[in-house]
Amino acid sequence: SIYYFSLSNSVYLHFLFYLFFFFFQAEDGIRDAQESRGLGDVYKRQGLYEVIPPRLLSAFSCSELEFLLSGMSEIDVADWMQHTVYKNCNSSTAQVRWFWNVVTCMSDVDRCKLLSFATGCANLPVEGFVGLRSARGVSRMFQISLVPSPNSSRLPQAHTCFNTLDLPDYSSQDELERMLRVAIEEGAEGFFVTE
Fold first, then answer.
1. Smallest Cα–Cα separation from 139: which of 129, 147, 148?
2. Model confidence over 130-141: pLDDT tens digits?
3. DSSP 8-state code for residue 137
């Protein structure tokens, strides 16, 4: 049978912390957790086994389990391009071509930042871009929407619930790259309203 569970971000991060620092370190040549860290870690391992049965964990290496839990961290630009839809533009529109040129030249870290900015998630599902989902869990492809912008200082805008990037109609690739980098660096944390 297949086990599926949903975890909040906090529980997920705690789970990953315990998994990698207390469970899988034994694989890396460090003495078994029971010997090197004492009884407290035995309880942590038992707690992990209550969430995921040991027989299921034993089927995966550390890197395989990280991949299944976190998704892909290397981003294939060709896959991204193939699974993108366009609004008010198409794949041959100048701004779209410039966008893909910029993305192709980015490091994997910057691509993950861009993905996080546009979708709210820095890693891809196991299936790649074809597996992207909306905030409601419905299959939702990445979308680039070209928006008219008489003011060239407008930053790209993301609609993370819909995996959509509003891309202003910049007049050059350099301008597009500069504004996109500002957006992913400065706008990555979102916004907060205080009362």
1. 129
2. 999 887 888 999
3. S
